[in-house]
Amino acid sequence: MRKRLIVSAAAGALALLLTVPAAAAPGGPGAAGIGDTYYPYAGNGGYNVSHYDIRLKYQPATDQLEGTATILATTTQDLTRFNLDFVLGVQEVLVNGRTAAFASTGESELQITPARPLAKGSPVTVVVRYADKPGEVERGGYSAWLRTPDGGVAANEPESAAWWYPSNDHPTDKATFDVSVLVPDGTQAISNGILTGQSSRAGWTRYNWRQTKPQATYLATLAIGKFDIRTDTTPGGLPVVTAYSKDLGDNDGAARASVERTGELVDWLSTYFGAYPFDSIGGYVPNVPTGYALETQTQIFYSPAQFARGSNTSTVVHELAHQWYGDSVSVQRWSDIWLNEGFARYAQWLWSEHENEGTAQELADYIYSYYPADNAFWTVKPGDPGPDHQFAGAVYDRGAVAVQALRNAVGDEKFFRILKGWPTERRFGNASIPQFQAYAERISGKPLGELFNTWLFTDSKPALSSAGVPAAPAAGAAASALAPSAKAQPQEPKSWKKIQETNSIHDSRH
Ligand code: ARG
Ligand code: ZN
After folding, report:
1. Which residues are CB-contacts of 340 (< 8 A; sequence separation ≥ 6)?
2. DSSP label at residue 404
3. Ligand 1: does its nearest atom lie under 6 Å from the Cβ of 157?
């Protein structure tokens, strides 16, 4: 039932604009962003995706990618129009089987106008047919498609999905994935989860990958190239899939000696973080020239550079830790990145402790003294670093000092309960730093506002008298590892340089 406010025939067009719906929420275009202040165009309003079915054909010789993405979603409002995040050239869009109008904008938005408006709460099937050369598509001088001599790779954070499939590109909208890729015989295709099948016909081979657990869009990955793919299972029965470019040269041995320990390390991390949340685990090392690694869900992306100075189990531990802290429990907003990087770095410290290469406390002490108060390191707030510093060293290192400060403030027993309880309680969800603080306060029974404020939300070097200073264990230990006179210059822990190699390239393209 609608009520006209103005009924004058002369003002007909205006009258339509002023038509007020009596009951239902107004329909209209869905928002072009999900409301993340760091990335206003990340994600979209008006719907939630439950499943992506992505069928691709890729020719490494020409970089030609052809795709059909079928997206299953449910509307959260009446919609006359909605967006997907995508940068490649689109041929055709269908919504619920009917041809839909579409337009691409400069902000990586694909605007879709269905033939009929969509009602709130209804299931919707979107089919997008596309073709492009992803390596040639840039936004602000950036392309997320890493070309290699034998193919290409999509693995980056916070943005890479738009270079290979259209999506609601924000960690708060997780979905399951089927990725099926046709490549020339002799070339392999890698994506997340389990390789469910592989078949060849007329010179082309199809690889089918399946991720049955909720997965954030930036954690989906695609790699095409000449790989040695290995499948195995852990003693506990978890499938392990690892893959190595046949072109790793001098880094081949160190890469395998690190990534082949994935099953052992995932079991070790489970003792700290609780049951592993997904159905498989693994990692791949393509022949890319980049320096970082990425916690792509169950199929971790490693750059060969991570292994250029020998084996590097520390980085493997970092990316495996993200499977709990980052992938299963994901950020609510990108400003919550400390919940990912602070804990993945801290896992490296636990591994260092386990390997007798320096305790977490020693690493915290070392960082505290390594950066003088006037160093720009302390100007980045790990709890709100801003989009330009999302992957700054402080988010990792000061972020892990914050975790150690929490450990000292609540004591080991409570601390390890928090470390294991959080990913269990929040499994497959999203969470913010204030929610983590509330959880830690609930488990420890201590107010932690001052500690979080000091270590995460202050743009200067915290004083030695600060709450939860790493040197002040709550248990009341007398000796302070950070006593300024005694330990002004702590010794460099053995693991220090290796740990710094993880994501040594903290690029800040955003
Ligand atoms: N989350 C990744 C890691 O620390 C960092 C990715 C940084 N991205 C980049 N382009 N440098 O494991
Ligand atoms: Zn990380």
Report:
1. 295, 322, 325, 326, 330, 331
2. H
3. yes
Find out whether the peptide bond into 423 is cis, omega within 30 degrees of 0.
Answer: no
For 127, the token pair is 């089919």
CA dist., res. 352 & res. 370, Å (int): 18
Q: Are strands 90-95 and 98-99 parallel, antiparallel or unpaired?
A: antiparallel
- The Å distance, Cα 160 to ligand 1 centre, comes to 12
Atom of ligand 1 lying closest to residue 293 CA: 12
84, 110 Cβ separation under 8 angstroms? yes
Domains annotated on the chain, with CATH: 330-507 (1.10.390.10)
> Among residues 447, 332, 291, 282, which one has the least CA distance to residue 36?
332
What whole-number distance in Å separates Cα of residue 248 and Cα of residue 451? 45
Distance CA 359, CA 377 (A): 22
Query: Ligand 1, closest atom to CA 507?
Result: 11
What pLDDT, in 10s, does the model give residues 397-454? 999 999 999 999 999 999 999 999 999 999 999 999 999 999 999 999 999 999 999 9
List, in sequence order, every residue forming a beta bridge with 145; answer none if it has no partner.
Answer: 154
The DSSP annotation for 424-454 comes to HHTTTSEE-HHHHHHHHHHHH-S--HHHHHH
Residue 200: strand, helix, or coil: strand
Give pLDDT tens digits for 125-183.
Answer: 999 999 999 999 999 899 999 999 999 999 999 999 999 999 999 999 999 999 999 99
Segments of the chain scoring below 70 in pLDDT: 1-26, 467-488, 504-510
Q: Ligand 1, closest atom to CA 503?
A: 4
61 — phi, psi (to 5°)? -60, -35
